[in-house]
Specification:
single chain, 134 residues, alpha+beta, five-stranded antiparallel sheet, 20% helix, rod-shaped
C-alpha cells in the first residue's frame, strides 16, 4: 500500500500498524484438538464381567481388558496398570502470541495379584474419560 506524499510519519506508522494487525488476524486462526492415548478403557464397559478379589485371576483380567499399559513385578505379586489419557484443547494462534486452553483426563485401573495370579485388590480412578463415542 502506498501512501500519498506528504503524509505524516505518525499517519504512516498508524497505517502500518493497522495493516500488520489485519495481516496477523488474517494469518492467525482458531485451533481445536483432541487426543486419546493409552489403552481403551474397557474397564468402564458394562459388558466386562465384575472383578472379584480372591476369585478373579490375572488371565481373566487380561482376557477382559487386553494387554496393560504397564506390568509391574513386586516381591509378592504382580500389578497390571491400565491408563487411558484423553485431552482436549482450543485456542487462538497468531504470529506473535498464542492462547491455548488444554484439559487432560487420566482414567486408570490398577489390579494387584498375588504370586498365584489371583486378584487381591483393584482400584479405578474416580474421574472418567468424558469422551463421547464419535
Amino acid at each position: 500500500m502506498t501512501l500519498p506524499k506528504g503524509t505524516s510519519a505518525r499517519r504512516r506508522s498508524s497505517a502500518f500498524l493497522a495493516i500488520a494487525l489485519a495481516t496477523g488476524l488474517w494469518l492467525g486462526g482458531c485451533a481445536f484438538y483432541k487426543n486419546e492415548t493409552g489403552v481403551a478403557n474397557r474397564w468402564r464397559d458394562p459388558d466386562v464381567p465384575a472383578f472379584e478379589p480372591g476369585r478373579t485371576t490375572r488371565a481373566d483380567v487380561l482376557q477382559a481388558l487386553g494387554p496393560p499399559s504397564q506390568l509391574i513385578n513386586l516381591t509378592d505379586g504382580v500389578v497390571l496398570y491400565y491408563l487411558n489419557e484423553y485431552g482436549t484443547g482450543d485456542g487462538y494462534v497468531f504470529i506473535i502470541v498464542n492462547f491455548i486452553n488444554q484439559r487432560t483426563v487420566f482414567d486408570r485401573a490398577v489390579f494387584f495379584f498375588d504370586q498365584d495370579g489371583v486378584l487381591t485388590e483393584y482400584a479405578l480412578s474416580e474421574e472418567v474419560n468424558p469422551r463421547s463415542d464419535d
